[in-house]
């Protein structure tokens, strides 16, 4: 098999005629299209990366605001958490404060002043 390839290459190199203009143009076209596709995919990847980084910044800003209890939401009726123990029949409702914005919420037990 290697001998067959070697014979083909030797006959190609020993031939006196070179590649045709059509073969040359086709190879240039294929190379150009490959570079164009690579450039397009690189630009798309950069745009996706930039969009993702912007979304991350917005997400963590909202999450930090909710966790640091910066914006208390005024909800009606006042949100409550119900805690119950069916074994001893104890039930208790606690008022909570809800903080956050844009789908990021945090809550804490309301303290009575």
Can you describe this structure?
The structure is a single chain. By secondary structure, the chain is an alpha+beta fold. It has one domain. Helix content is 53%, strand content 23%. Strands 1, 2, 3 and 4 form a 4-stranded antiparallel β-sheet that branches. A hairpin with a 4-residue loop joins strand 2 and strand 3. The longest helix has 47 residues, at 21-67. The radius of gyration is 35 Å and the shape is rod-shaped. The termini are far apart.
Oligomeric organization of the protein chains: single chain
What's the number of helices?
2
Q: Could you name the ranges where pLDDT drops below 50 across 5 or more consecutive residues? A: none
Distance between the termini: 91 Å
Beta percentage is 15-25%
Summarize the structure.
With 113 residues, this protein is α+β, with helices and mostly antiparallel strands. It has two helices and four strands, in the order ααββββ.
Topology:
Elements (H helix, E strand, L loop, with lengths): L1 H13 L6 H47 L4 E2 L6 E6 L4 E12 L2 E6 L4
Keywords summarizing the entry:
single chain; 113 residues; alpha+beta; 4-stranded antiparallel sheet
